[in-house]
Amino acid sequence: MDPVKTAIWCIESRFASELSLDEIAEVSGVSRFHLCRAFGASTGRSVMRYVRERRLTEAARQLADGAPDILSVALSWGYGSHEAFTRAFREQFGMTPEALRARRDLSILRLSEPLPMQAETSITLPEPRIEQGKPMLIAGLGGSFSVGKVEGIPALWQRFALHIGHVPGQLGYTTYGVSLNCDDNGNFDYIAGVAVSDFDNLPAEFARTRVPAQIYAIFEHRGHVTAIKQTYEAIWRDWLPKSGRKPADGPTLERMDQRFDPATGNGVLEIWLALQP
Predict the structure, then answer these.
(1) Who's near 81: CB < 8 A, 6+ residues apart?
(2) Is pLDDT at 73 greater than 90 in this prediction?
(3) Which residue of 166, 211, 232, 245 sits 20 to 30 Å from the alpha carbon of 68, by its own alpha carbon?
(4) What pLDDT is recorded for position 41?
(5) Are 70 and 102 in contact (CB under 8 A)?
(6) pTM of this structure
């Protein structure tokens, strides 16, 4: 497990809440000293500077969207006062929060986007199980991504985690990542959500999709979630061509139950690939 990739995942999935260097090092499985040296050598910045830059970047997005209360934005991103937030914001972006809110133009800022976190090693994929899946209704928070830029997905899960257990009509505590609407350029929509009994009374910002009854090849991704790209590559590059099966034009599911620990990113995550009959 690459401690730098794991640290980036930890930060991206938790930076909206209190997060210390000790916590990040613990999740990464190394000492503070080891992580600081490795992270600095790999990224050119310190661990906590990256946390600060990511928080201020997301704060800048809220301000550019016209957030009415700058103090509320400051408090939500860990700053105890308007003055402390303004000082940090000006240091990173060269302008005040008030000026950005008035201009509503992010193109003038140098934003800090998520760093890549996928491992670079290939894997040997065990045979999947084949099952007939039942129809489901999935509801949660959605976003648009591409195969080359998926670093924002952990932040999506971070936002959705606050809703788990409180979603109207929620069925159980298994969570689902749903990839759908893929195009020829590798762009796709992604929903971090749960199964629901119906779409009534959902929050207005929630995305929702109907997953039809389909045949699935179900693969187990074991280890840290940052290596999931290699599992997907092995599915499409190795298993699918050799299997003689053809993928169906439908959603791909990532299913996470009690075997997966969202706090550390470790455990078993299932990838459900829809197949043609």
Answers:
(1) 71, 74
(2) yes
(3) 166
(4) 75
(5) no
(6) 0.70
